[in-house]
Design goal:
Blueprint lengths: L1 E8 L3 H12 L4 E5 L11 E4 L2 E4 L10 H10 L4 E5 L2 E5 L2 E4 L4 H8 L1 H16 L8 H9 L1 H16 L8 H7 L5 H8 L16 E5 L4 H13 L3 E4 L2 E8 L4 E7 L5 E11 L3 H7 E2 L5 H6 L2 E12 L9 E4 L8 E4 H4 L9 E10 L4 H4 L2 H14 L8 E14 L5 H15 L3 E3 L2 H4 L5 H17 L22 H5 L12
Parallel strand pairs: 1-2, 1-12, 2-9, 6-15, 10-13, 12-19
Antiparallel strand pairs: 3-4, 5-8, 6-7, 10-11, 11-12, 14-17, 14-18, 15-16, 16-17
Length: 493
């Protein structure tokens, strides 16, 4: 039995941020991580024969000065600035993302463009009052016709469900601040003043030279250097709370089947809520709510390309074509030249959204590679003959699903666990069932550490990421980080 002051479940951005900050304060920390090789969770960087690629692609930008400062503290010399370019592929044409009205309407043609503008006008005159679904929210902002062209197919690929079953929270969080009216005004050079002024679109971002895994490898190394432990290949098995002693007993299993036990005064968990609640003892009354939460899984087929020309300049391209299953294509050479080991090669990541156990997820790697090569050729991005090698990486529970009932379930779990387990702290994307960006996940950890150091709940961790409009429509980099979205207490400390 190993004793520690704080045990952290998960070595992703939230878990490692918490562990790093606690060890800076001289606190005893153990981090357990299920993966046997990589830290960083979904923000890890996979190395395949010297070709590096992300699981999803992770830009480094934030409104929070604290987060930007922490990035620089952990990884001071390895950031590069990269131009941001992402487009939509639809009907054999490319559209900028976020949408640019002039380009979109030109590509669609006069007839379709007129119908889109009329549809938008109708939606503005007769909006859905208090929209509750993704469909309703986007329809209000763009009109029904543009919703069906640019949002419906891709969104249903991502989530594997109808846009009528996805909460409006998803749209409000990820595309807030964008609508056709403001896009048209922007295209015509009309700049609203004051509160209605459009923020600058993100044109560049910081990125670790060899991918986001550099950041989390460095954080783990610094954590260990201060006496903390990061134990790989450990899966949470049980988590028992002794109310009288106010001590946790944690059991983890290894791939060999061996078990290890720990005692801790504090638990910080970035594990999916469903898994955490199932491991808890005494059994939480909100367990049915926890088990009702859903997740979308994800796999990347990385294609190694031999070519003497630039494939395309985008960091990634959204594939809205309904004739193919691929949802997004990453060009990792556009993220950083150091992601490729030698000139004359590129690495593309074809991303497929699925549910663990479905046909895509259970397909053999060879079948998935064949599918990816066929589809990349069908949409005309590259000739499949240029592919010299490939590999497949699967990521379970990549995205917490925002269905119509998720908020009720999360609220029930949040209240129940807070009341019964005062030293259990939930952080990060899956730990809180929030579609957090990397910086938001880090902020939840930073606030949690401050609460632990204070010995009481001073900061509202659950308030992080309630307003995420800068995901696509905000300003970028350090300029945006200076002086805004500071980490402030909910009440006087």
């Amino acid at each position: 039995m190993t004793d520690t002051e704080t045990l952290i479940i998960g070595a992703g951005p939230a878990g490692l941020t918490a562990g790093y900050l606690l060890t800076k304060e001289g606190r005893d920390v153990i981090v357990i991580e299920r993966d046997e090789t990589y830290v960083g969770g979904i923000s890890r960087t996979v190395d395949y024969k010297g070709f590096l690629f992300d699981v999803g692609g992770h830009r480094f930008f934030s409104k929070s000065k604290e987060v930007v400062d922490l990035w620089k503290e952990i990884l001071p010399d390895d950031f590069i600035e990269r131009p941001r370019l992402s487009r939509i592929f639809y009907g054999g044409k490319y559209y900028s993302y976020p949408l640019k009205a002039r380009e979109a309407l030109f590509n669609l043609g006069i007839f379709n463009s007129a119908l889109c503008v009329l549809s938008y006008g109708w939606a503005r005159m007769f909006p859905v009052k208090q929209p509750t679904t993704f469909h309703q929210w986007v329809r209000n902002q763009f009109g029904e016709r543009l919703f069906s062209i640019f949002f419906k197919t891709y969104t249903e690929k991502v989530w594997g469900m109808s846009c009528n079953d996805i909460s409006a929270d998803w749209a409000a969080q990820r595309i807030k601040g964008l609508d056709l009216g403001t896009a048209i005004k922007n295209a015509l050079g009309i700049r609203p003043r004051g509160k209605g002024q459009i923020k600058t679109l993100i044109e560049s971002f910081q990125y670790p030279r060899r991918g986001p895994g550099m950041m989390w490898d460095a954080a783990a190394a610094k954590l260990r250097g201060r006496g903390g432990k990061v134990l790989m290949g450990r899966t949470l098995a049980s988590l028992s709370w002794d109310e009288g002693a106010r001590v946790w007993t944690v059991t983890a299993t290894r791939a060999s089947g061996a078990t290890e036990s720990f005692t801790a005064r504090n638990i910080i968990s970035s594990a999916p809520i469903t898994e955490l609640a199932s491991a808890l003892s005494p059994r939480p009354s909100s367990l049915p709510h926890a088990r009702a939460l859903r997740y979308r899984d994800f796999l990347t087929v990385a294609l190694i390309i031999k070519t003497d020309r630039e494939l395309f300049p985008d960091n990634w391209i959204y594939i809205h074509d309904p004739s193919v299953k691929v949802g997004r294509v990453q060009n990792f050479l556009s993220w950083s030249p150091a992601m490729v080991p030698e000139p004359g090669y590129a690495c593309l990541g074809l991303e497929y959204f699925c549910f663990e156990g479905d046909g895509l997820w259970t397909s053999a790697d060879a079948e998935l590679i064949a599918l990816a090569k066929e589809e990349i050729g069908r949409i005309g991005l590259i000739d499949p003959a240029f592919v010299t090698d490939a590999c497949v990486v699967r990521q379970p529970k990549a995205y917490p699903v925002y269905d119509e009932d998720y908020r009720v379930h999360v609220k029930a779990v949040q209240g129940d666990l807070a009341a019964r387990f005062p030293t259990l702290h939930l952080v990060g994307r899956n730990g809180m069932h929030k579609y957090n960006n990397q910086d938001h996940a880090m902020m939840t950890a930073m606030l949690t550490v401050r609460n632990i150091l204070a010995g009481r709940q001073v900061y509202d961790v659950w308030g992080v990421n309630e307003d995420a409009e800068y995901s696509e429509a905000g300003t970028s980099g350090e300029r945006a980080a200076l002086g805004s979205e500071r980490l402030v207490p909910t009440r006087a400390a």
